[in-house]
Amino acid sequence: DAGVTQSPTHLIKTRGQQVTLRCSPKSGHDTVSWYQQALGQGPQFIFQYYEEEERQRGNFPDRFSGHQFPNYSSELNVNALLLGDSALYLCASRANYGYTFGSGTRLTVV
Amino acid sequence: QKEVEQDPGPLSVPEGAIVSLNCTYSNSAFQYFMWYRQYSRKGPELLMYTYSSGNKEDGRFTAQVDKSSKYISLFIRDSQPSDSATYLCAMNTGGFKTIFGAGTRLFVKA
Predict the structure, then answer these.
(1) Could you read off the pLDDT of B77-98 as tens digits, one per residue?
(2) Which of residues 3-62 of A touch B (CB under 8 A)?
(3) Which of A45, A63, A104, B106 sits a CA distance of 20 to 30 A from A33?
(4) Secondary structure of chain A in the HEC alphabet?
């Protein structure tokens, strides 16, 4: 049974560019959350998707947007990239207790 | 003031020691408390999940929640070198948004 899978694993982008990160939740999980984890910090909640709708959002600007597809997979889009967007982006699907995380996408903005 | 405070460490202990990891929080509405373990270049992995106050034991791990003091702890008995990782506390009110601590880096020396 595959866990949460994310792609790509690493990505280098230039300031001002746009990026799309992808996530497939664990089988049977229908809720997907996205987190940003800066180096040496804990994950910060970006938003959560359930039934193809954004249900709750953290303190992130509108440059961060997402989408959930009918098969529960999800995308995170970031526009107008800033150097400060460099981080590990984690996708998590919700189990009965807690979350199952993927290994993340390491985004570097140069 | 952050909603969740966690000493980043690093914490270095000899193999076999009892490890104590702690977090404090300010939001009295938090009801669900979790501990995650994160190895380098990996996503967080759920270790313990506790609802409200009390203790929970799972093998070498014991989680404690003291809501009156807004203080949670994770104890690791008979620590092993394989326990070397970053430990993240996390909590939520029952909704979608989970707040993480900054994580404590633990090193267990053989």
Answers:
(1) 999 999 999 999 999 988 778 9
(2) 4, 31, 33, 35, 40-45, 48, 50, 55-56, 58
(3) B106
(4) CCCCEEECCEEEECCCCCEEEEEECCCCCCEEEEEEECCCCCCEEEEEEECCEEEEECCCCCCEEEEECCCCCEEEEECCCCHHHCEEEEEEEECCCCEEECCCEEEEEC
